[in-house]
Design a protein that fits this description.
alpha+beta, elongated, RNA-binding, five-stranded mixed beta barrel, BirA Bifunctional Protein, domain 2, eight-stranded mixed sheet
RNA sequence: GCCCUGGUAGUUUAGCCCGGUUAGAAUGUGAGGCUGUCACCCUUGAGGCCCGGGUUCAAAUCCCGGCCAGGGCGCCA
């Protein structure tokens, strides 16, 4: 016989099955011992009659999170709240859990975030965290589904890089044999180069920033979803991102209802046109708060904006040139602003992108203007000089999106093994 | 890096303001009991004041420093 997964048992009434899983709950009454068994697919009640001493002698030794094997008959039950139960003919303990455990897997006694992270080996077994990461898996799957359907090529770019190229975010140094290298903070130039060959590319991977940020939204290692498309304008890219978001979120609500029910989080409505608000308009909305043109929009500022326009998905477009990275393409008729966008849900930035400079000479000019060394970009400049089409793209924070979808409070909750300024373990 | 708040059994939490109690509870864990439980229930045992210094006859409680955590800010292609 094969392992039966616990979600299958309603179809196996009166059949003998073999199940494997973890002891989730134990209730000990006068005549019966009730074990709630949990596996990756669901839960089932094991009903043990204490008069069956052979089985009871094994079962009375059970503790929370012990791993067991049960062979038994599935019975429909009016009394059992799950509707079905398993009457065992044999129980084996495969792996003992040493007590006390670091946290309560049933979630009846909650644990602090720090405890939850330290004991990820247990908190991932909790229904809520389990659901979050099943949603993450589905989210990535639907992104791939959407893009493969539209002729995109998935790429894998290097995470160990030679040059600390830009100002801005600090990079982690890595000893690379006899030279110094860095952990990539984005696939930017590599995905642009790839778009010059494949036209439409994407990558889902982790990147690194050595910033001592202590916020509920920043990590030193974060999962990014990057897209780059040749012959796309920034409005084309926003169209793509908007339809992708609608597809992915609707599909999640359709296919992963079980997980969202466990999390008890309200569905986010995406059934509207995602507004594209010009940076200029944002400034005029925020003028009463002393925000002026040229200011970056901090989280605090964006919270004020959310208060004005409400909590929804929207784009902020046409950012001042000096607020955007060196590769961002300016508007031809007004070089003070760029063909760029941020994509937000309320105050939280989820993605940013835009059109890129695709002419080598222009890029060199721009690098010099920003006090960056063109020599460090020689590969990229050659690529631009070798027939680089106009192109645009974006980078999206997967965990920030997951945070919103699962109504979580801290990004560390939705990352399996988060890395922040103070946490390198587990 | 700055500001605020906190740190009490494995976990979660009361007590702290107003110093003196066998430091209380829940859950988990050991023992026993209980008519099918479903946050089962009942009896009973074990288990705790972050670290260092100070004030005081006396510190979980007040003060200072450290470490750790959470939040706010800053930093942040």
């Amino acid at each position: 016989m094969k392992k039966t997964y616990l979600n299958e048992i309603p179809n196996l009434v009166d059949k003998e099955i073999e199940v494997y899983g973890w002891v989730h709950e134990i209730r000990d009454t006068a005549k019966f011992l009730f074990i709630i068994l949990r596996d990756s697919a669901g839960k089932a009640q094991i009903l043990i009659n204490k008069e069956k001493t052979e089985i009871y002698n094994v079962a009375k030794e059970l503790h929370h999170e012990d791993v067991i094997y049960v062979k038994g008959i599935v019975k429909k039950s009016e009394i059992a709240r799950l509707g079905y139960e398993i009457i065992p003919n044999e129980i084996k303990i495969l792996s003992k859990a040493k007590h006390p455990l670091a946290l309560d897997v049933t979630g009846k006694i909650n644990a602090e975030l720090n405890t939850i992270l330290d004991a990820r080996y247990l908190s991932l077994r909790r229904d809520d965290y389990n659901a979050i990461f099943k949603i993450q898996s589905a989210l990535v799957r639907y992104i791939r589904e959407f893009l493969y359907e539209r002729g995109f090529i998935e790429i894998f770019t290097p995470k160990i890089i030679k040059f600390a190229t830009e100002g801005g975010a600090e990079l982690f140094q890595v000893k690379y044999f006899d030279e110094i290298s860095y952990l990539a903070q984005s696939p930017q130039i590599y995905k642009e180069i790839c778009s010059g060959a494949f036209e439409k590319v994407f990558e889902i991977a982790s990147y690194y920033r050595a910033e001592k940020s202590r916020t509920p939204y920043h990590l030193t290692e974060f999962l990014s979803f990057d897209v780059e498309c040749a012959f796309y304008s920034y409005h084309d890219i926003m169209d793509l991102l908007e339809s992708l978001m609608k597809f992915v979120i609707n599909k999640l609500y359709e296919k992963n209802e079980k997980e969202f029910n466990i999390l008890k989080c309200e569905k986010i409505n995406v059934d509207y046109k995602f507004e594209r608000i010009k940076y200029d308009e944002v400034i005029s909305i925020l003028e009463p708060y002393g925000i002026k043109w040229g200011d970056d929009l901090t989280q605090h500022t964006l919270k004020l904006l959310e208060g004005k326009i409400g909590k929804k998905f929207f784009f902020i477009i046409d950012w001042p040139t000096e607020l955007k990275p060196f590769y961002t393409h300016e508007h031809e008729d007004n070089p003070k602003i760029t063909k760029s966008f941020d994509f937000n849900y309320g105050f939280l930035e989820i993605a940013s992108g835009g059109e890129r400079i695709y002419n080598g000479d222009k890029l060199v000019q721009k690098l010099k203007k920003m006090n960056l060394n063109p020599e460090n970009f020689s590969l990229f400049i050659k690529a631009l000089d070798s027939g680089m089409p106009p192109h645009a793209g974006f980078g999206l924070g997967i965990s920030r999106l997951l945070l919103i979808l699962t109504n979580s409070k801290n990004i560390k909750e939705v990352v399996l093994f988060p890395r922040d300024v103070d946490r390198l373990i587990p």
